[in-house]
Write a structure and sequence with these properties.
- The strands form four sheets. This protein has a seven-stranded mixed beta sheet, with no helix packed on it.
- It is mainly beta.
- 32% of the residues are buried.
- The chain contains one helix and 18 strands.
- The protein has one domain: UDP N-Acetylglucosamine Acyltransferase, domain 1 (3 Solenoid).
């Protein structure tokens, strides 16, 4: 029933997409391919699109942020109260990637094919394919074997 309501808002889901309870999906710009698993209590700010390719796994409590306030003057840096100036950038998660629990993915980021984002990482820039990143901000920990 939940997926039906989310589709009504404009989201699209490939075969065997599973979204567990407690996720906050704010808008209609979530798109998945097949075999996508999204664990509980994830947050999707869908000002921009979030795309998941095949076989992506998302741990619980992961946050996907596609919006940012345009920096304002010193009296109101977030600038949203005065002018509502917001920019958005899409997030893409490529085939086979795994994003572990409580990570945060920032606007405009692409997570490469077969990459792993470790628990609690804050991803501020693209993650190369078949790499493992961790930390705040996320940094390369090691390169992973790319063979299936």
């Amino acid at each position: 029933m939940r997926l039906i309501l989310l589709k009504f808002l404009g989201n699209t889901f490939g075969n065997n997409t599973k979204i567990l309870n407690g996720c906050h999906i704010l808008g209609g710009k979530l798109k998945t391919s097949k075999n996508v698993f999204i664990n509980r209590n994830c947050y999707f700010d869908l000002t921009g699109c979030v795309y998941f390719e095949d076989n992506v796994s998302v741990g619980h409590g992961v946050t996907f942020i596609t919006a940012s306030h345009i920096l304002g003057p010193s009296e109101n840096r977030s600038n949203h109260v005065v002018k509502g100036l917001i920019s958005s950038k899409d997030i893409t998660v490529k085939k086979g990637a795994w994003i572990a629990a409580n990570a945060t993915i920032q606007p405009g980021v692409t997570i490469g094919e077969g990459a792993v984002v470790m628990t609690g990482a804050v991803v501020t820039k693209d993650v190369a394919p078949n790499t493992l990143v961790a930390g705040v901000p996320a940094k390369l920990i090691k390169t992973l074997d790319g063979a299936a």
